[in-house]
Amino acid sequence: MRGLDGKVAVVTGAASGLGEATCVRLAEEGAVVVGLDLAEPSVPLAGFHRLDVTDEAALAAAFDAVAEEHGRVDVLATFAGVAGGGPVHGVAAADWARVIAVNLTGTFLTCKHALRHMVEQRSGSIVTVASVEGIEGTEGGSAYNASKGGVVLLTKNMAIDYGRLGVRVNAVCPGFIDTPMFRAVLGSESMAAFADEYREQHKLGRFGRAEEIASATAFLASDDASFITGHALVVDGGYTTGMRTGLSSLMGLD
Ligand SMILES: NC(=O)c1ccc[n+]([C@@H]2O[C@H](COP(=O)([O-])OP(=O)(O)OC[C@H]3O[C@@H](n4cnc5c(N)ncnc54)[C@H](O)[C@@H]3O)[C@@H](O)[C@H]2O)c1
To answer: If you measure from the C-alpha of residue 145 to the centroid of ligand 1, how many angstroms do you get, rounded to a whole number?
Structure first.
């Protein structure tokens, strides 16, 4: 991909799943990758700051340290996130607040402190992480879906505000991807039948791989996407295309 070699990229959620895979891919593209996470990453990085993305002072200090050490902040990808929800009448206000705080407010705060540097530089590329569940509803989605829907619109608003300053902002909207978060939500025996149904709704007939979100994220961050901003890129194996009942097998399509 063009334009990632030598760029300074900050990735939140770097210690697991999609964020980890994105760190690996950006490094393969030649970027200098700095991770932010609550947990210690297991892949080699150019730098790491252990922090909570709801802690604004820690984020401010981390971005200042990256700019100090590496001279710039070119790319941000915001993978730190948590699952959570349920039917609204059963959701404790504290659980709602935690999901919104990490997924939506954490994205806002992370972008805010990356943007301080990107605005000064007059360049940068941000990829936020929403979900297919930020585009359409799911049973019991509530807090998670609201947080991810918020990320999609926050992304479009930042694209409007910062485009003239040389900063592109896009969202990636993954379908269901096999990661530790996915396994925590859908991996239990009691969820097996539902997991099968979710897999069926991915029209490619399988769940996604972390590398497939990493490549889409790297693309949006790169100069190959130089005229793309404010876009919510669905990377979902066809999950959001429409309902599939299997009727197509009667048409010889299996
Ligand atoms: N896996 C999927 O199917 C899927 C689908 C759509 C969207 N997403 C989104 O992609 C992102 C990554 O998901 P994943 O499946 O890799 O999850 P994961 O649980 O494997 O990784 C999430 C990472 O975020 C970190 N994190 C959580 N809260 C944090 C906080 N407050 N501060 C700093 N770091 C924190 C965790 O320590 C972990 O390393 C999440 O935002 C998730 O909502 C995942």
So the answer is: 14
Q: Which domain holds residue 138?
A: 8-177+207-238
Does residue 198 have an active-site annotation? Answer: no
Q: How far is the CA of 13 from the centre of ligand 1 (A)?
A: 6
Count up the domains in the chain and report the number.
1
Q: Cα torsion for 5, 9, 13, 16, to the nearest 10°?
A: 20
pLDDT digits (tens, 9 = 90+) for 201-250: 999 999 999 999 999 999 999 999 999 999 999 999 999 999 999 898 89
**Going by CA atoms, what residue is nearest to atom 26 of ligand 1?**
80
CA of 17 to the centre of ligand 1 (A): 7
Say if 247 falls within a structural domain.
no
pLDDT single digits (tens) 172-196: 999 999 999 999 999 888 898 999 9
Q: Answer yes or no: is 189 within a domain.
A: no
Among 144, 162, 198, 239, the one annotated catalytic? 144
What are the tokens at 187?
């991996």
Does the residue 244 lie in any domain? no
Round to whole Å and give the CA distance between 110 and 104: 10
Cα separation, 225 vs 236, whole angstroms: 19
Angle at 62 between CA 57 and CA 67, to 5 degrees: 130
Find out whether 190 and 253 touch, Cβ atoms under 8 Å: no
Residue with the nearest Cα to atom 11 of ligand 1?
79
In this structure, what CATH number is given to the domain that contains residue 114? Answer: 3.40.50.720
Task: Let me know if residue 253 belongs to a domain.
Answer: no
Beta-sheet strand order (sheet of 232-235): 47-50, 32-37, 8-12, 75-78, 124-129, 167-174, 232-235
